[in-house]
Amino acid sequence: MPSHLFIKKSIAQLQNEAAGVGEAYTLKRTLGALNLVLLGIGAIIGAGLFSLTGIAAAHHAGPAVTLSYVLAGVGCAFAALCYAEFASMIPIAGSAYTYAYATMGELIAWIIGWDLVLEYAVGAATVAVSWSRYFSKLLESFGIKLPAVLMMSPFEHQNLADGSIVSGVINLPAVLIIVLISLLLMRGTRESALANAIIVALKVGVVITFIVLGWQYIDPGNYVPYVPPNTGVFGQFGWSGVLTGAAIVFFAFIGFDAVSTAAQEARNPQKDMPIGIIGSLAICTVLYVLFAHVMTGLENYKNFAGEAAPVARAIAKTPYLWLQQAIIIAILAGFTSVILVMLLGQSRVFYSISKDGLLPKIFSDIHPRFRTPWKSNALFAVFVGSLAGFLPITVVGEMTSIGTLFAFILVSLGVLILRYTQPEAPRAFRTPGVPVVPILGVVTCAVMMYSLPWDTWLRLVVWMAIGLLIYFTYGVKRSILRKTAIAQG
Asked: CB-based contacts of 311: which residues, under 8 Å, 6+ apart?
């Protein structure tokens, strides 16, 4: 394979790009450490906490699902520490794409950049569809019922109460939430961060309220035995069940990496990026463990099996039934902040790829007043909104997970490579325990990827084939770094 496909950017080049050397307009640095922590929490806490806890407890770990959350949090920490080193060392918007460009070359960087579309753009569309469903539930609780044809894609249908079957036209709420958030992102990063902070405060407030009010109604008998005996099948309770439970709840942690895409908009990225990435993961791990402890203490884990709303069943053990309504609001808030951070991350990754010439310039055009990649935001509003409005993307949701894990693996490998190829390069934050921590990051994520269905792998291969086609027909001919290298001989 031609060597120019693996041409690398130097750390000095990347640091000049981060500083905006030679640029008329650059992304505006407005985010502090607290903003970054809140961005991380906004991306991490979605509906996974409210749904996966009951599944993991009922079928795999029992009350020890709390230990599953600890293990999953530790597993994510390996990748988070690697992201923190890169984000402090190369404070640029491209995240894993840029890190791969510096360590493994342009082709690998393109592959991971294309892969991030799965995590961010497709992920945002998937979450928007779920947001639409919960929004409908909330409206129904107030006696407002939206037409079914405006709540589904054309490929979906619903059986109505009168026995008739209606097919969807467009999932209008999903499209609207994508458009509204995209407009907010076009307006400015400071305004987006403020909106995210308000939403995060709302959903975290509901989670803490559930923990505090539910704690006094815990039945200690529900914790006996804390680790239920294994049934003889690997993963069905016992310590193997705790491990399997960790693999399931692992996906409730995905999102902290999106903080790294805001590196070029952080006021002091060398100091604040590690705080944002590691801090948000640590806070969410503590909240998850406490939430799971209260939930399995209120109701016996066996009763969560087959339960569509396990949290509601736990709340029924308290006199605070209004919490069920609050949980729906928290889920909506969770989904909203996840969409916001995913769309922010996607536009920033494509901004970096476009700056390198591998994508059209429109993705890196900066608004002279708002200092945001507004054209990129507008294009993704159309693209992601179309996915959410017209396609059934329940299956595509699994692609989000495999895309994220693949990114984690390459970032962990990148830290390992750079430590040995450029050991003297300045690092504001150093991943501890190298090479053990990066290797554990690779192994943990590889195991999680292995546990995903084979058809998810097939879709990943097809998606990557499409990406390579785009690269070899467009990007490789327009690569600014490659053109410069050729000009210099």
From this structure: 50, 53, 54, 210, 295, 324, 327
Q: Is residue 83 one of the residues assigned to a domain? A: yes
What pLDDT is recorded for position 168? Answer: 82
Sorted by sequence, the CB contacts under 8 Å of residue 480 that are 6+ apart come out as 355, 356, 357
- Kindly report the CATH number assigned to the domain that includes residue 216: 1.20.1740.10
Amino acid code (one letter) for 421: T
Closest CA to 76 of 213, 259, 319: 259
The Cα diameter of the chain in Å comes to 75
Left if phi > 0, otherwise alpha if psi is -120 to 50, otherwise beta: which for 485? alpha
pLDDT at 73: 93
Dihedral sign from CA coordinates of 419, 422, 424, 427: negative
Q: What are phi and psi of 159, to 5 degrees?
A: -85, 120
- Strands of 72-188, DSSP E: 157-159, 165-167
For 323, the domain range is: 27-480
Residue 262 lies in a domain: yes
pLDDT of residue 225: 94
- Cα gap 333→327, rounded to integer Å: 10
Q: How many domains does the chain have?
A: 1
Q: Residue 415 is encoded by which pair of tokens?
A: 């830290």
The kind and range of the H/E element at 97 are helix 96-103
**Predicted confidence (pLDDT) per residue in 18-76, tens digit:** 666 556 557 788 889 999 999 999 989 877 788 789 889 999 999 999 999 999 999 89
Helices (H) and strands (E) in the chain, counts: 19, 2
8 occurs within a structural domain: no
Assigned domain for 207 exists: yes
Nearest to 284 by CA among 308, 256, 306, 261: 256
Residue 306 has pLDDT above 80, yes or no: no
Containing 197, the helix (H) or strand (E) segment is helix 189-215
